[in-house]
User: Fold this.
Amino acid sequence: MVNSIRAEVYKLTRRSYSYILLLCCAAFALLVAGLMCYIKYSAAPDVELINFPLAINMLSMGMPIGLYLVAVGGDAVFSEQYKYNTLKNEVSYGLPRVRVYLSRLVVTLLLMAVVFVVTIGVYALASLVLLGIPSDAGAMASFGKNTVQAIQDAFQMLGFYVLASFPLWLGAMSLALALYFLIRSSNLAGLGFLAIMLAVPAIFDNLGKYVNPVFFRLYHVTLDYMSGLVISTETLDWPLIGRCWLIGLAWAVVSTAVGLFFFSRREIS
Amino acid sequence: MSDVILQTQELTRRYGRTVALDRATLTVEKGQIFGLVGRNGAGKTTLIRLISGQSMPSSGQITLFGQISDAGLNRARSRTGAMVEIPSFYPYLTARQNLEYYRIQRGIPGKNCVEEALELVNLTDTGKKKFKTFSLGMKQRLGLALALMNQPEFLLLDEPINGLDPEGIVEFRELLLRLNRERQTTILISSHILSELSALATHYGFIEKGKVLETISGEDLREKCRECLELTVDDAPRAARVLEQQLGTRDYEVLPGNQLRVYAFLDDPQTVNRTLLEQGVGLISAQQKDSNLEDYFLNLIGGRHHG
Assistant:
């Protein structure tokens, strides 16, 4: 397993796709920080309201992006194996398919961790430089607490959002990878992922509203719904974190089990 | 310890209603170069894909290095090298990077094996050239390099000379013969270029419509393909007696249907014909025959054996 992971990392670090993904995420983080800076300096009266702690607080809004970004990460790692027919080189050497599958899952997780750290790092650094740390008076006006407390609280909430979102990302990532392994075309797999992530919750929501409220139960276990629930929370909600882990891990386990089941029987051409 | 490297028993692969491989049974022993002969779509690739684990059998059994369980077969496959259909690699990596990726993945210690494999197939000077810019011949060579990288005991090669230029074909043939001679590498090779196969193989398996029609050693095949006088007579035992007693030869064989193959008197067939007639043997037909692997195969799939 370690060899397979090392090999995937070797391949990934030699593929421009991974660097472009990192660059795009970093550029996006810079863009958001830049936009906030522009607003701060073009809206003179409330100049103190937009500052570093606020930028960190606003990160929660970006958490659902991770839910969809994992599909791009999965695509980078899976590397269109069906298009290039490279899986046969692994299978014919006798590498167990479980190992082939799980190594991709682990490396996608590693890649997404790097993407996360780089994106958050660039965003935090840019916000710090461009927006600055507010004075105690400014912090009091914005957050009703002093600067140190405001920053501490912002990071605490960031930790909470990440803790709650991580299992949801993991569930989405497992789903994306299962689809890449099951569907020959990476584009179709990507579309399938979007359909499951966006269309299915919308369908359950509407069925719950117009057909039978029992469909709400299904809607409430979708990753999209849970992600929305997380960002709408303004205080540390530990039961919610527990629910996120339960649902996220359930998605991860079921997706991986289904993906492995079909991949282990799949004809490799 | 058994010298059997591969054994398939009643191996069958169905795709819906189509039977791609129909109860194929064959044995490949250590040191053999086993040539799979068959037309396009006969089932050669299906058989190799089943052995290499790319496809699952519908029924039947594969024994590789004595292993039959799924886990055992996977372990056994690490002692093989396979090149099935068109070699496939990551297009954005160079030849070295592609091999290095598989070296790491397979846990092969030391980087020397990558260089050695590239040297074996004359691909050391590709530098930073990406796989996507390779010619078909270069791709074939890289595919072979990957198959050889782990110094396999058993090589599975499916149409490996497709895309190679004449010089490449000769080098490839010499390489396989060298591996077989020096490392005792057992080889299962399929090709529809029968002249190439006959220059390599020590044993043959003939496949048609998913069925293994016959397996035969190169020696026996040569014997069957020997130049001969093929006679159809009214009384084969009597003709045999005439050959032995009147013409003094035992270099013949009796086939079903009152047929005889005589390997003597090839430069004077009239003597045989005349003597048989003089001794009262009715001669229905007589013809001189000389066949090669291609003729043998064509006659086999046509349902007719001859020498």
